[in-house]
Design goal:
The complex is a heterodimer of chains A (about 40) and B (about 150). By secondary structure, chain A is an alpha+beta fold. Helices cover about 40% and strands about 20% of the residues of chain A. A two-stranded antiparallel sheet of chain A has the order 1-2. In chain A, a hairpin with a 3-residue loop joins strand 1 and strand 2. Chain A starts with 5 loop residues before the first strand and ends with a helix. Chain B has about 150 residues and is of the alpha+beta class. Chain B has a single domain, classed as 3-Layer(aba) Sandwich (Glutaredoxin), CATH 3.40.30. The chains are: A alpha+beta (about 40), B alpha+beta (about 150). At the A-B interface, strand 1, helix 1 and helix 2 of A face helix 5 and strand 5 of B. Strand 1 of chain A pairs antiparallel with strand 5 of chain B.
Chain lengths: ~40, ~150
């Protein structure tokens, strides 16, 4: 732990600091959305 | 002696007046071996006098281990916020606070109580759609300091 606030999502995504709403949502949810999961399943 | 000043109490009363639903704060504690539990309880006890929609229920981690397990709490002090579902039955908001909600985290707690109490979040429509598109259960852990 090097700073706060630190947000961890499902032990996979780490976000350090307070971000604007759009950036936070993008970073926090980006890899978990239906579209992305379908994309990664290819 | 109250921790909040009369002016802060007045501001919180005004904010809580916008709550549409009741919110129960489950305060998980234990009798021995929890140095910060009394301070956490003192902080939590500031809220019910400011709104008849806020209640506090104490849950002993040792004596009511089954309930603690049901709420996923394994350390104290901890808080779980419970609100109503669409039928007025109790619904776990799944919001937890671990540790004493002091300093800036007191405001985080206030905001969480307001959200569970029915206040609209400030999420944009675009972001609501992104959240709705999440495909798997997510657990958010937010690490903070109480200063």
């Amino acid at each position: 732990m090097t700073g706060v606030p630190k947000t961890v999502v499902n032990d996979q995504v780490e976000i350090l600091g307070a971000l604007p709403q759009d950036a936070f949502i993008e970073q926090a949810l980006g890899q978990f959305t239906i579209d992305n999961s379908q994309f990664t399943k290819g | 002696m109250a921790l909040l000043s009369p002016s802060d109490q007045a501001k919180l009363r005004e904010a809580f007046a916008e709550m549409r639903h009741s919110v129960k704060i489950l305060f998980f504690t234990q009798t021995l071996g929890c140095e910060t539990c009394p301070q956490a309880r003192q902080i939590i006890d500031e809220l019910p006098p400011l709104s008849d929609k806020i209640t506090v229920d104490e849950v002993n981690l040792v004596l009511d281990a089954e309930k603690a397990k049901r709420y996923g709490v394994d350390r104290v002090p901890a808080l779980a916020l419970v609100g109503p579902d669409g039928d007025g039955q109790e619904r776990d908001s799944r919001i937890r606070f671990l540790g004493t909600p002091a300093g800036y985290e007191f405001m985080s707690l206030i905001n969480a109580v307001l959200l569970v109490g029915g206040r609209e979040s400030n999420l944009t429509e675009s972001n609501r759609k992104k959240i709705a598109a999440v495909a798997t259960p997510l657990t958010f852990q937010v690490f903070t300091t109480p200063t």
